[in-house]
Amino acid sequence: MSKKTYEAELARLQARLVDMQAWVQHTGARIVVIFEGRDAAGKGSTIKRVAEYLNPRVTRVVALPTPSERDRTRWYFQRYVPHLPAAGEIVLMDRSWYNRAGVEHVMGYCTQAEYHRFLHQAPIFERMLVEDGIVLLKYWFSVSDVEQEARFRSRSEDPMRRWKLSPNDVLSITKWEDYSRAKDTMFIHTDIPEAPWFEVDNEDKRRGRINMIHHLLSRIPYREVERPAIEIPPRPASGGYERPPRDDAGQVPDYAATLG
C-alpha cells in the first residue's frame, strides 16, 4: 500500500472512530477490543493509530505489567476485571487475559493445571461479559517468521525503539512452533460465537492497520450523533490588566533559536 493511499484512508477511518466514540458516549455503550499476536506483530503501532485522535478519558489503553506475587494468588481474571469499561467507555487491551494461553504457557510461567483451567474458564468469562452488554472484539495479529526476525533486528539497531525488545521477545524466535501450537489450541477453545477471533494479516503494517480499523468500525452498530455547535464568544475589552515583567518568572531558555 502506498504511503499516500494509506495516509488518506487512515485519516478517513480515524474520523469515523471519532464519530463512533461520540456514539459510545451518547448511548452508554461499553466496548473492549483485545489486541493479541506474536511479538513484533504490530499490535502497539495499530493501537496508537486507533487511539490517536480519541479522548483518553473515554478510550483507555490497558497494558498491564508482569503480575505481582499478590496477583498470582488471586483468581486469574480478577486482575483484569477492574479495567473493564463503564458506560460510555472504550478499552483497548494491549495484550490481555490471553497471556496465559500464550507466553505464560509457552515459557512455563504457569502450571499445566492453570493453563487448562484458563482454556475452560475463558469462554465462560467472555460469555458473561457479552451477556451483560459489553461489546467484545478479539484481534490476532499475524506475521511471518522472516518478517518477525527482520523487525527484531530493526528494533535492536534503533536506540529509539530498543526498549520494545525484551529477552522474551528474542526467545520467541527459538519457540516459533511452540507459539504456533499454543495459538492453534487457544483458537480451538476460545473462538466462540459470542466473541470470535479475527485474524489480521500484518505482514504489511499499513495494510494491516487499515484492515483492522475498518473491520472494527464495521462491527460496532454506531451512527452519527448530532453534536451541539460550540460558539467561541467574543473577547471582552481589556479591564486594565498588565502582565508582570517576564524577568520576574522562570523562563524556559529559547534553545530552538540556537538551531538556526
TrEMBL record:
KW Iron (keyword) present: no
Chain segments carrying region Disordered: 231-260
GO BP terms in the entry: phosphorus metabolic process
InterPro entries xref list: P-loop_NTPase, Polyphosphate_phosphotransfera, PPK2-related, PPK2_PA0141
Class of this enzyme: transferase
Keywords: Kinase, Transferase
Name of the protein in its database record: ADP/GDP-polyphosphate phosphotransferase
Function: Uses inorganic polyphosphate (polyP) as a donor to convert GDP to GTP or ADP to ATP.
Pfam families, alphabetized: PPK2
Sequence similarity: Belongs to the polyphosphate kinase 2 (PPK2) family. Class I subfamily.
An example Gene Ontology molecular-function term: polyphosphate kinase activity
Domain Polyphosphate kinase-2-related span(s) in chain numbering: 2-227
Organism: Microbacterium aurantiacum
Subunit structure: Homotetramer.
EC number: 2.7.4.-
